[in-house]
Amino acid sequence: MRWAIGGPLAGAGLDADPGKRAVVMTMGALHDGHLELVRRARAEASENGQVVVTIFVNPLQFGAGEDLDTYPRDLDGDVAKLAGAGADLVFAPTRDVVYPDGDPVVRVAAGHVGEVLEGEHRPGHLDGVLTVVLKLMHLVRPDVALFGEKDAQQLLAVRRMVRDLEVSVEVVGVPTVRESDGLALSSRNAYLSADERERALALSRSLRAGAAAAATGPAGVINAAREVLDEADGVVVDYLALVDPVTVDAVADDFSGHALLLVAARVGTTRLIDNQAIEVSPEVQR
Prior knowledge:
- By secondary structure, the protein is of the alpha/beta class.
- The chain is 32% helix and 21% strand.
- Keywords: ATP-binding, Cytoplasm, Ligase, Nucleotide-binding, Pantothenate biosynthesis.
């Protein structure tokens, strides 16, 4: 495995191989969820292809008062983990490589997708995500890019950007990786104390409760999930929503079909997100 700090990957020697190139974009502090993305990328790449993992803590997606300065960083540890996971090259550019003229004047706007749910609670967050994703796509020039389904709204925004801007990259979503007790893996889990981690399990419990109520219609799904969250001490909910998986708009009361149940909450000072795909049935009137 090779790794590079500086400039576009043309200088890292990858252009000599004509196979498919797959990229996994991360902010480091890698866990098993990231490594599953890398393993899936290895499978997506052709026999002679390459798997590139980018590590860059993107300042554009952090708002005022968020954890940019304290976000966990362990480049040496990340590279060691990737060596056995199927990565061919780690691209860890510095801020002046990604944004050589300072913060970019021209940025990608997520539109409506970036204004609701995460966008409402983290204004500009998805604009920052899409800007760096597009930049990294230009720098890495992948054939396929893999993203975790845990960040469902981000995945949707990336897919929409690729479609709307005619970016020649296939976007692949990879299912959320969870601990044995159901907690979705996240780099921010490292912030949780033992007690907070136990409290954080309310998020995945609420999603399971909502999924179990799928036959009761949208209102039943939300009510079942909300009941779990209401009973959880020390969990402050930002939002709980059952949405269309393409538009991220809340589904109608009479909706039936494929939907996403999304939750975001703070446990202590740590903000966590999670989601669950649900096949909703129309509520049966009695």
